[in-house]
Amino acid sequence: MKDYNLKQTFFNIINMKLFNVYPLFNITPIKGKDVYIYDENNIEYLDLYGGHAVISIGHSHPEYVENINRQVSKLGFYSNSIQNPLQVELADKIAELSGCDDYQLFLCNSGAEANENALKLASFHNNKKKVIAFKNGFHGRTSAAVAVTDNSKIIAPINAQQEVELITFGNLGAVEQVLRNNDVCAVIIETIQGVGGLDESTAEFYQGLSKLCKTHDAILIADEVQSGFGRTGDFFAFQKHHIEPDIISMAKGMGNGFPIGGILIHSKIKASFGLLGTTFGGNHVACVASLSVLKVLEDEALMDNVKVISKYVLDNVKNISKIKMIKGRGLMLGLEFDFPIAELRKTLIHKHRIFTGSSKNPNLLRILPPLTIQKKHMDVFFEALKLEL
Predict the structure, then answer these.
(1) Which of 44, 140, 274, 277 is the 20 to 30 Å CA partner of 25?
(2) Based on the domain organization, do 40 and 165 belong to the same domain?
(3) Which residues contact 27 (CB under 8 A, 6 or more apart)?
């Protein structure tokens, strides 16, 4: 009987199913190199999506691979109860490349976790609890982060207890009206909305928002999870609008696929022991991954490349009549059509071997390639579009 139970247990284990929450394409990548990925049959795909804007310096960049291998062979992890000079080095390098030098760095593991810590810290700072967020915004799938996300389908009853005001993107008057109640701890905003459809408001709006937050003692959180680390051609997307957020959240391109996130916290917000914490955040390998990204960004002038390729895309899509509008900035772009793009996206991946992305806007094709992309790669995409349209 005992042997039977052991066999039955083993049988159950090896037949365990994955929790089925992802609609999957029938493609199995097994390796990647720069802007390409390869499946188990060695079929090559052009990656214009970067796994949700995660791949910043290209798949398997030699320097990135070498540095991670070297670090993990020495020390992969220890907790935040000891000194880790790599965290200090990372903070210094982010300050140098971003110009955000009046900030403090707290490291975690993902974008949702970055936004959770940003919201929590804002509430600690001013002892308030309501949050202003914006329609079509996306900030993560965990507790407070999902509560400030405009998607009721992923907000569970336990998340809905958060006090959130969802306001139309760009409506400064509505923001001011809510702030007058003096109960808002934070305003969280994506400078360019990612999942929502690549919309960006005006400099007047962002500057007005910043001013209102200062007037009403609310923390302005710039969610740069998708748009940060050079994706728009600036280190952070908000920098185009000449504002200084109180907290900046980061992840995705920060680690080029290695899980890392973080928040930059303005010096006016004071730390105390135990205020925030994480087990894995800022571990040795994660820091080396992000330092490698920053080094390649700088050495290969990738933010300049973003601007060059972005202009090339803008110039070329003018020749494709069925593209109604192009949204976004840098290499965080959306091509909007007057029809749903689901079938076009399938055709691009299965017939032309090109990865692209979708968004909340069913007519919008998202383009989020590695920042190493070249004109010749975009030409392949343009030719495929012209053929199918």
Answers:
(1) 140
(2) no
(3) 39, 45, 349
Please give the structure tokens belonging to residue 365: 């094709």
Residue that is written with structure tokens 């965290």 in the block: 87
Residues with Cβ within 8 Å of 284's Cβ and at least 6 positions away in sequence, in order, are: 71, 75, 76, 77, 78, 84, 86
Strands 44-47 and 354-355: parallel
3-state helix, strand, coil in the chain (%, to 5): 40, 20, 45
Distance CA(70)–CA(153), nearest Å, equals: 43
Distances (CA, A) of 377 to 34, 51, 64, 148, 236: 11, 17, 22, 37, 25
* Separation between Cα atoms, residue 116 and residue 231, nearest integer Å: 23
> Which residue type is seen at 373?
I
The answer on 37 and 132 residing in a single domain is no
Q: Please report, for the domain that includes residue 274, its CATH number.
A: 3.40.640.10
The answer to whether 105 and 294 have CB atoms below 8 angstroms apart is no
Same domain, residue pair 264 and 117 = yes
One digit per residue, pLDDT tens: the chain, 389 residues?
A: 455 454 455 545 568 999 999 999 999 999 999 999 999 999 999 999 999 999 999 999 999 999 999 999 999 999 999 999 999 999 999 999 999 999 999 999 999 999 999 999 999 999 999 999 999 999 999 999 999 999 999 999 999 999 999 999 999 999 999 999 999 999 999 999 999 999 999 999 999 999 999 999 999 999 999 999 999 999 999 999 999 999 999 999 999 999 999 999 999 999 999 999 999 999 999 999 999 999 999 999 999 999 999 999 999 998 898 999 999 999 999 999 999 999 999 999 999 999 999 999 999 999 999 999 999 999 999 999 999 99
Rounded CA-CA distance 196/18 in Å is 28
Residue 188 dihedral angles phi and psi, to the nearest 5°: -115, 135
Considering the domain architecture, whether residues 51 and 166 belong to the same structural domain is answered as no
Q: Six-digit token pair at 40?
A: 């188990």
Residue for token pair 């020495």: 74
The residue written with tokens 């365990």 in the block is: 16
Range of the domain at 312: 2-61+301-388
Angle between helices 203-215 and 172-179 (to 10 degrees): 10
Give the end of a domain, one of 275, 299, 323. Answer: 299
337 and 277, same structural domain? Answer: no
Structural domains in the chain (count) = 2
